[in-house]
Automatic annotation (TrEMBL):
Function comment: Has an organic peroxide-dependent peroxidase activity.
Residue ranges of the TM segments: 21-42
Keywords: Heme, Iron, Membrane, Metal-binding, Oxidoreductase, Peroxidase, Transmembrane, Transmembrane helix
Record's keyword annotation contains Lipoprotein: no
Name recorded for this polypeptide: Catalase-related peroxidase
An annotated Gene Ontology molecular function: peroxidase activity
Length: 359
């Protein structure tokens, strides 16, 4: 049955349809259109207790309201390049992106948290969002971080973690009692925290390994395989200098001096491997090297680049399907809510101005 038309939102005086919201305005021109049916503007209710608005409200309570910016991973910079597929990934997935050949990519490096002007801190989680477009009118979007496991395994734990890890105004640090109570409530997070402490971050964005963490199902005519993917860097990072944008500035300098690359490893899971993203898979799982991501340009966030893309992890091509990980549906719902808000708000300049960084 046809859905009734939804009211258009207005953004910079332009009528913004639901379709362009979900595609990202800039991406519409750069990429082939995707099948909107593949995009779940998921239920407002998340898990048993939440609406996506409750999670958005909590972000805003912790980080303040910054109109026009993402409610999480607010500080970022836009990049573009290509994905060169080896063809080896077709063993696991029929997605056309894995056929031998080259696909265009737009992406965004970010730091976690909802403050778009927060000083760079090497301990802050680093993000990489990618949208890979390829023939057939499909896209593969992913938003990854530089962690070996995710600290929580449910939207409820994510919501509680936001409050437990918020700095106490009196000390500037999280309240140790609140953190202890949170970890006692979520033993999976306590276990993941130990793993995270054993894997300190690398020195910069370009030597970071970016992982899906969530499990996905790779599908061919002959079957379905659980897969987690990892983008493994092929270079060292330039040393970070000083200043509030030290990590981003080093990234900008490096990209101004030449391309940077990551190999895409598809980690082949088994039926016994956990979907729970706080749990690592055994280290000896087989890896298929599906190709290489090469980023060639970097731009200040602006209309027409990755600023206006929603790196929804459920925008998947035929041949990749979500697993039952409850984080995935929650992410899709909250990213869409964040996107709808920021697309309708006035824009302020990004803290990272690419032209101002000396090569
Ligand atoms: C329930 C769990 C999670 C919630 C509620 C959440 C929430 C959010 C929100 C609201 C945004 C901003 C979206 C936008 O306005 O475009 C965001 C961005 C992002 N998230 Fe999450 N997130 C969750 C889990 C994860 C996980 C598991 C990962 C990585 C594996 C991740 C990586 C990222 C990245 C890289 C971005 C920035 C993407 C960009 O540059 O647009 N998040 N998240």
């Amino acid at each position: 049955m046809d859905q009734p038309p939804r009211p258009a939102l207005t953004w910079r005086g332009t009528a913004v349809s639901r379709r362009s919201l979900l595609l990202g305005l800039g991406a519409v021109t750069a990429f082939l259109a995707i099948d909107l049916g593949a995009v779940a503007y998921a239920n407002n209710v998340i898990g048993d207790r939440f609406t996506r608005q409750a999670i958005i409200d909590r972000f805003q309570r912790i980080f303040g309201l910054h109109p026009g910016f993402r409610r999480n991973h607010a500080k970022g910079v836009a990049v573009s390049g290509r994905f060169d597929s080896t063809g080896a990934g077709r063993e696991l997935s029929s997605a056309k992106v894995f056929a031998a050949g080259t696909s265009p990519v737009i992406g965004r490096f970010s730091l976690g948290g909802g403050n778009p002007t927060a000083p760079d801190n090497p301990a802050t989680v680093r993000g990489l969002g990618l949208a890979i477009g390829f023939p057939g009118g499909q896209q593969w979007r992913t938003a990854m971080v530089n962690l070996p496991v995710f600290p929580v395994n449910s939207p409820e734990a994510f919501y509680d973690q936001l409050l437990a890890s918020a700095p106490d105004p009196a000390t500037g640090k999280p309240d140790p009692d609140a953190m202890a109570a949170f970890l006692a409530k979520y033993p999976a997070t306590a276990a993941a925290t130990k793993i995270l402490k054993e894997h300190p971050p690398t020195s910069g964005f370009t030597d970071s390994t970016f992982s899906s963490l969530n499990t996905f199902l790779f599908v061919t005519d002959s079957g379905t395989t659980p897969v987690r993917w990892v983008f493994v860097p092929r270079q060292q990072a330039l040393p970070a200098g000083k200043g509030d944008n030290a990590l981003f500035d080093a990234l900008v300098r490096q990209l101004k001096s030449g391309p940077v690359s990551w190999d895409l490893h598809l980690v082949v899971g088994t039926a016994e491997d956990p979907i729970d993203s706080t749990l690592p898979w055994p280290a000896d799982r087989r890896v298929v090297t599906a190709g290489t991501l090469t980023l060639t340009t970097i731009e200040t966030e602006a209309q027409g680049n990755a600023r206006d893309v929603n790196f929804d992890p459920l925008v998947l091509p035929d041949g990749i399907e979500p697993s039952d990980d409850p984080l995935l549906a929650a992410r899709s719902a909250v990213y869409a809510a964040s996107y709808r808000l920021r697309a309708g708000e006035p824009k302020s300049p990004s803290a990272i101005t690419v032209d101002e960084v000396a090569p």
